[in-house]
Amino acid sequence: MLHGLALAGLAATLHGDARSAMLSDGWEGLAAALLIALPLLLSAALSVRRQLQAEAPAPGDWTLAGSLGLVAGLAVLALSLLYVMPADRAALAWPWLGLAALWAGLRLGHPVLVLAGMALQVAAAAGLLWFGAPLWSDTDLNAHWGPLVLTLTGLLAGDLVRRPTRRPLALASGAAPQWAAVAWSLAWWSQLLPPVGWRLLLQHDALAAGPAAWAGWVLLSSIAVVLLAHWRRWQVLGQASALTLPAWVLCALTGPATDGLPPSAHWGWAVWPLALAWHLLLLRRQRDWWSRPVLQWLHLLGFWLFLLLAAREVQLAMAGLGEAGSAWGQLGWMLVPVAVIAALSRPALLSRWPLAEHRDTYLVAACAPLAVYLLLWVWHANLGPGDAAPLPYLPLLNPLEIAQGLVLLALPFWRRALPDTVSRQMPRPALTAALGLSGFAIYTGMVLRTCHHWAGVDWRLVALFDSTLTQAALSVAWSIVGVALMLAGHRRVVRSVWMVGAALLGVVVVKLFLVELADRGSLYRIVSFIVVGVLLLLVGYFAPVPPRQRDTGETA
């Protein structure tokens, strides 16, 4: 009752101060508050003296009066600082007081003290945000002290929680309190130097370099987290280093890419290679902290992040080559993916880390979408005229068709490098048909582009269809492919290949009668009929249909 009267009397004397301190009375008020707070804490300690002497008291052994006394004493101690300093300055001391309460609560097994320590951390954050200068202020250079104090005390609190104690508490056991402390610390850590860097960049009119600076900040922060986790052998803090990749993704999304600039712009050329090197080192270190499924996702996310950064860099670099509308710009969309998928298929790399340890992740989960994308790129690029300006157009020796050929060469190597379990599940005829159709589409596009560049046929569907030269060239070109397939099927005794060639020749014959025959008196029509007829006679003599029995046994 006496303590309650003292608290009521103290509360009645509280008045705001228009000067620097939050409350009036200054040092006299501080002395009065201390004279009330210290007896409160001493009374609480005396009331639980027997419980303190016990080896492992049960939570119910703590008296309500003692718990209320502890909370009231801590509250008066924290508020007493407002007599001599503003709220934002007092909030810098509250986290340390809360850390002391947390340490005492964990050592004594007192849940109220633990909760009071956490509450003081939250109160300090609220005081800094409400009464302190804005964290992203462009004038106040001292706004970083609050995030620094909250980061340090949060990490120390998490380190205290994870240590084994003689009087364990269910409230502070498990990984959840550690994750809460780590998340709290990293959240305030993210508000420490970025605002300072933003102010410096603003002063030097260099805000465009901000994303590269944030990526470098994430890199240094990740290194610090890993070193601290290794020093303290703190698994939860080490696991938190996995947030490095999502943070880099945010930096990449808000970086020069949104302004149409390459990732290497504004010091990105120095930051992102270092980020890639640290990413590989971090993946090795995280094997001690994360299970294999989580590691697979980290490998996959890192693969796509740096692949897209490199692809964006090359795409913007190639866009400036050649004249406007040339095929050089299209190469930027495939050079990096085809180089990556070809490199990952090399046996020398497959035997090294990380491919040796996560082969399915890279070759299947990462490269399968790349393979589909490259096939789609082949078909999309085939719709263009393939201008090689300033170089002249040469069939098969122009940048577009060379790139398409590289794609069709890289995909079989990738399919051959797949793990046996995946390779057996992948339908080989479907892949062969997709590659064959893509090759045939490239071949047809080459014929059309040759007519466009060498004969001056306009690159429009109607103009190409109405051109007798183009129709005759297609008939001859398709007939050559059909004959080649029938000869290959006959020699290898593969009936399915022979049938595909025969079907293509049938299409050519139907096309001759429906399209070319309508063009009376044209020299190209006569040439196409003669060439196709001669080829039909030759294939009928040299490559008859192979026997069904041999083909069935081989395909089985």
Q: What do you see in this structure?
A:
- The structure is a single chain.
- Among the domains are: 208-287, no CATH class; 320-456, no CATH class; 467-555.
- It has 26 helices and no strands.
- It has helices at 2-12, 26-47, 49-53, 64-80, 87-108, 111-131, 145-162, 176-189, 193-203, 210-232, 235-240, 244-253, 268-285, 292-319, 328-331, 335-343, 347-350, 359-381, 399-417, 420-425, 428-455, 461-466, 468-492, 495-514, 523-542, 548-555.
- α10 (210-232) runs antiparallel to α12 (244-253) and α19 (399-417) packs antiparallel against α21 (428-455).
- Residues 550-556 have low confidence and may be disordered.
Keywords:
single chain, 556 residues, disordered C terminus
Gist of the model:
By secondary structure, the chain is mostly helical. It contains 26 helices and no strands.
The secondary-structure element order is HHHHHHHHHHHHHHHHHHHHHHHHHH
Which structural class best describes the helix and strand composition? mainly alpha
Instruction: Provide the low-confidence segments as ranges.
Output: 550-556
Percent strand: under 5%
Helix content range of the residues, please? over 70%
**Number of helical stretches of at least 4 residues:** 26
Number of strands: 0
Overall shape: it is elongated
Q: How far apart are the first and last residues' alpha carbons, in Å?
A: 95 Å
Radius of gyration, in Å, reads: 37 Å
Mean pLDDT: 81
User: The biggest beta sheet, please?
Assistant: none
